[in-house]
Write a structure and sequence with these properties.
By secondary structure, the chain is of the alpha+beta class. The protein is built from two helices and six strands; from the N terminus they run E-H-E-H-E-E-E-E.
């Protein structure tokens, strides 16, 4: 898989911000990406050493717009643990 398309976006939530303090970062990844693809993409993009990667499939929610009911698309996310001392700056001013 093309490494530039593996990482879709970082996920900034309350839970992921708490994980950042432990050296773990959460990313939305491509549906077909493997753990090895994610580890290689993060290490190349941010110049850090990845120690472990946990991936999970997230089912899309059902949403209502008036009478019309639609399903949000399924996504995949990864929690990436870094070597102690490595950091990723997700915000510019941080």
């Amino acid at each position: 898989m093309n490494l530039s398309r593996v990482l879709v976006r970082p996920m900034i939530t309350e839970k992921s911000t708490l994980l950042n303090e432990q050296g773990r970062y959460v990313f939305e990844i491509a549906i077909g990406a493997t753990k090895a693809d994610v580890a290689l993409a993060v290490s190349k993009a941010f110049n850090v050493t990845v120690t472990s990667v946990n991936t999970m499939n997230v089912r899309g929610k059902m949403k209502r717009f008036g009478r019309k009911v639609t399903k949000q698309p399924d996504t995949r996310k990864a929690i990436v643990a870094l070597k102690p001392g490595d950091k990723i700056q997700l915000f510019e001013g941080a």
